[in-house]
Write a structure and sequence with these properties.
The protein is an all-beta fold. It contains three helices and 37 strands.
Length: about 525
Amino acid sequence: MKKAILLILVIFLTQASFSQRWEKLYGTPAYDEWNSDLIECYDKGYLLSGGSMHFHSNWLIKTDINGEMLWEKHIVYDNSVVYPSYLDQNEKGEIVTASAVAIDFSGNYWASIVKLDSCGEKQWCRMFDPGIRLDGFFTDVMFLDNGNILALQFANKSLTVYCAVQIYLYCFNPDGKLLWIKPYASIDDYPLLDATWPRKIDKFGNGYVIYGDCYWAFPGNPNHVYLRPLIIGLDSMFNEKYVFPFGGYTDSIFGMVYGGLQFNDSVYMGVGTRWIDENNHQCDNSLIMFFNKKGEELGYRQILNESIGTGIKSNYISDIERINDSLFLAVSNYGKNYEWNPWGEFVLDTHANIYLKDTMSRLPAGDPRMIRSSDGNYLIIHTIQQPVTYKQDILLLKLNDTLGSAPFNQGSFVYDSLCKEIPPSEEIDITDCMAVVGIEDTPTPEQYFESLKTIPIKAYPNPAKDKVKFDLENTELHQNIRLHCYDLLGKLMHSEPVIQGQKGATVNISSWPSGMYVAIVYTNDGAVGKCKFLVE
């Protein structure tokens, strides 16, 4: 196994540079690192995720409120690469991280998900043998209000067509049991659709929105497809409400959507890029897309390159946060070519008017992510390329709403207060992670939610002699439960109440005649579960 996590060095910029700006740089000399995600933790610290070529790992970095590293974890798998992950944390301090593992060097990737406790120790992990699917990545993850975990996945389904990709949602219970899987934006349902790529899922009220990309043909011309911003709306039961390529039906909008936010009670705002030159992608504009809860397009705005600066040929928004009812802060890539442009930030309104923009030049190597922190500032993580070594490191910066550097917080905070001590920096090996196969038999959300209306019951031993035990499921979801046992003539042999949440019951059958019996579980809705058992 790899050694010394503590050999990782945290590289700081020169005192002159950092004395003026809230910025922190994390990296290892001579190796590349790159960003993936960040969240604010319950203790006002931050958790960052990225990739480390030194360890071929998914790198988790916990910092204090001022970006000083508290601990780090490297999630590793044998000698393979664990890709940078997406993160979430619940009110218990538990962390879920989801990404993919390169199982071999032939391009075979398994989606992986790891749950850590509040002290960063592994609770469980799962990896998914794609089976009929060639590979898969989790591209976002979130805790649900009921404690379950939702993971957004793409999977390649074809041996010969690379872009034969399908979007899936996986739902796990808090103990890692896979509850249901459902595909979205199926090619069978949308004949103009060719392939999809999910980027992000957000919860808005009782529903959800998935942002991504797709290849979609013009109506009447299915032989040639174009890259489009893809938006999928779901209801509270994870059913598709709408699927559409923004501008794909009425306008020649080619491009991508990276994310968005809820503009008001009925309107959503997505952000991304519109390619002006579809053939070689050498010119693009930031794109702001408006749509409502019914999935109807309400219009769009573009940020023209000339509004950024002279000679600018490319700009696109990677992430956005709200400042107030009319102004927003966006992180963007803009420059004189399509790639390797500086990243920067600007303040804009819904008409794509830019009010403020920064002039810092940061050499890029990855798409930044941004959150609004609880202190009212804006925390941004992205990758920069060092000008001399050309190695990539992870940059964390905090800005205020006028694009000035946020002040360092001088308050006193207790970090990782749910732990007895600050967690250690260490490797988390997922080589022994449970590999899940046969996922084609996993129920859909509809089947799963329907099963919650029942109380499955199982008898053992079966046959039984003196006592029979019953395992009960879903009792925490029901009230006024009773267990009845009958012989085959319908005679009631036993009856007892079942307390809400009770997982089992034991019945003395020593005086019962030999034969077949039926156990039935009742609620106010009638019989909700039954099983047969034999008495010897």
